[in-house]
Amino acid sequence: MVITSTASLTPLKTEANQTIHTVWYHVEGIVCYACVGIIESAVKTVRGVKKAAVSYIGESLCVEAWDDADLDAVSAVLEKRGYKASRIAERML
């Protein structure tokens, strides 16, 4: 049996005609599971961020954000809390 996708290959847009970006960061300073909640909560305060998910084991952060998101603010907001975040990849959905 062959399964084919009917999903469109065009970027996913909202009513405001914005594309969702998925951005991955390497995060230094994650030392416990409490850090996961601190990081996710902090990143969700950044304008345009839709979702934030931290991997404690992988020391990584995955952020879903709209076009108008201030992605440079993600690193800044984490630095204020004692973490160092470096962008490692990005994909548009």
Summarize the topology.
Layout: E1 20-28, H1 33-43, E2 49-55, E3 60-66, H2 72-79, E4 84-92
Antiparallel strand pairs: 1-3, 1-4, 2-3
Features:
93 residues; alpha+beta; Alpha-Beta Plaits; four-stranded antiparallel beta sheet; 2 helices; 20% helix; 34% strand; disordered N terminus
Structure description:
The protein has 93 residues and is of the alpha+beta class. It has a single domain, classed as Alpha-Beta Plaits. It contains two helices and four strands. The chain has a four-stranded antiparallel beta sheet, with helices on one face. It is globular and about 40 Å long.
Q: What's this model, at a glance?
A:
With 93 residues, the protein is of the alpha+beta class. The protein is built from two helices and four strands, in the order βαββαβ.
Q: Write down the domain tally.
A: 1
Instruction: Tell me the radius of gyration.
Output: 15 Å
Count of DSSP H/I helices:
2
Rough shape?
Answer: globular
Residue share in β-strands: 25-35%
Task: Give a count of the beta strands, DSSP E runs of length 2 or more.
Answer: 4
Return the CATH topology. Alpha-Beta Plaits
What is the SS-derived class? alpha+beta
Order of helices and strands: EHEEHE
Mean pLDDT: 86
Query: Could you name the ranges where pLDDT drops below 50 across 5 or more consecutive residues?
Result: 1-10
